[in-house]
Amino acid sequence: VRRNPAEPEFHQAVTEVLDTLAPVIARHPEYAEAKLLERICEPERQIIFRVPWVDDQGTVQINRAFRVEYNSALGPYKGGLRFHPSVNLGVVKFLGFEQIFKNALSGLPIGGGKGGADFDPKGRSDNEIMRFCQSFMTELYRHIGEYTDVPAGDIGVGAREVGYLFGQYKRITNRYESGVLTGKGLGWGGARVRKEATGYGAVYFAEEMLATQGRSLEGQQVVVSGSGNVAIYAMEKVHQLGGRVVACSDSSGYVYDPAGIDLELLRQIKEVERGRIGLYAERKRSGTDFVDGGSIWSVPCQVALPCATQNELDESAARQLVQSGVLAVVEGANMPCTPEAVRNFREAGVLFGPGKAANAGGVATSALEMQQNASRDSWSFEYSEQRLRDIMIDIHRSCDETAREYGQPGDYVLGANVTGFCRVADAMLAFGVI
Ligand code: NDP
């Protein structure tokens, strides 16, 4: 805390991991001798830069941007870029730290990193977004590359932003280096299923967890928070697997639709018009409510998928969910559940899938995008989805086996942290003190 003041999210993420690693250190004194815990907590490189740009009124705007290149033991730094007013160094470090273990869990050769800016894209015109992205890349380009650091999207950064970023990178470097960014459009080096991957992957993970208790998503009532990239495709996969999503949200409130969220309408509002969630209730038949500013976790469900942002599900929300009989909580977002909420779920015997494991499908499919770019290939939707499903099943199996090995069956938090940490620690050990 003294070395990293005023970074509460970073402290929370590190504490959560370190809390589960004591038995690993007891088994592997060589990790402690090599000071691997201390080393892994310290980013390899942190870049902070100014992003000046001109808005549509001709006014100069200044934002602050970050790229934290956290750990490259397993491959080039890999992780998204977030554009949101809440972005600061502590938030980027928490996300980068989580990313190290998530990427290790994917089993693919990628290190961990994260970046972003305190830029608020809400209400900005296309031209403003483009100018911001161009200015952002004018500095970032010198730090990234197919073999060094490969950014992708996150909150506020989707295919449109990746397009502007890639265009500027290509222009400055005079290189068509497809593998420098992932989440690209399908016509220019993007991969099928990347857009769907995080949401689909989280639902596959939920299905695997439920299967350990002889259950499935079929017929289950599901609540998904958020209505962005992760949330929309989580909802799509839940519906495909026979569950019913009855509520979703954005930062203004939530909608409740007992008949099941109409995804076509939701996508029109969110992906095409970039509108607020309240519009859904306005346009939908009666029986649908919009609850302005309400907590989505008051809606009873058997499966809860928090897919919006960090610390969106606190202790009182967890209690409500437990009381309403929730069976499984699976994190589509990064660290959406507070530590108190997680404790409540575990004490109540609710299956809990931490984001590191459950939302790793997005970055895994980004690594598959890099593979396709490197071989100048393009895979079919079916093949890509099968690869994603196999990866999620494998992540679930590794977490489950590790939890058993350490005498805590069903503890996916321990399973994910220990599996991810050991893979990175072994590589770091092999490289010596660097
Ligand atoms: P998007 O920007 O597409 O969507 C974010 C959604 O969350 C929006 O509906 C947004 O609403 C809502 N939201 C944001 N802040 C709040 C808040 N304080 N309260 C309620 N709702 C809020 O982002 P993504 O879907 O890409 O990311 C969602 C989460 O998933 C993040 O934690 C991200 O780090 C994580 N993640 C994303 C991956 C990806 O592939 N995209 C991969 C792995 C993890 P509004 O529009 O009103 O702000």
UniProtKB/TrEMBL annotation:
Q: Which reaction does it catalyse?
A: L-glutamate + NADP(+) + H2O = 2-oxoglutarate + NH4(+) + NADPH + H(+)
User: Which intervals hold domain Glutamate/phenylalanine/leucine/valine/L-tryptophan dehydrogenase C-terminal?
Assistant: 191-432
Where is coiled-coil annotated? none
Q: Which SUPFAM superfamilies does the record associate with it?
A: Aminoacid dehydrogenase-like, N-terminal domain, NAD(P)-binding Rossmann-fold domains
Instruction: State one Pfam family annotation.
Output: ELFV_dehydrog
Q: Which GO terms describe its molecular function?
A: glutamate dehydrogenase (NADP+) activity
Provide this UniProt record's keywords sorted from A to Z: Oxidoreductase
Matching InterPro entries, A to Z? Answer: Aminoacid_DH-like_N_sf, Glu/Leu/Phe/Val/Trp_DH, Glu/Leu/Phe/Val/Trp_DH_C, Glu/Leu/Phe/Val/Trp_DH_dimer, Glu/Leu/Phe/Val_DH_AS, Glu_DH, Glu_Leu_Phe_Val_DH, NAD(P)-bd_dom_sf
Where does the source fall among the domains of life?
Bacteria
Family (UniProt): Belongs to the Glu/Leu/Phe/Val dehydrogenases family.
Q: What does the subunit comment say?
A: Homohexamer.
Q: In UniProt terms, what function does this protein have?
A: Catalyzes the reversible oxidative deamination of glutamate to alpha-ketoglutarate and ammonia.
| Name assigned to this protein | Glutamate dehydrogenase
Q: Which organism is it from?
A: Marinobacter xestospongiae
Taxonomic lineage is: Bacteria, Pseudomonadati, Pseudomonadota, Gammaproteobacteria, Pseudomonadales
* Gene that specifies this protein: gdhA
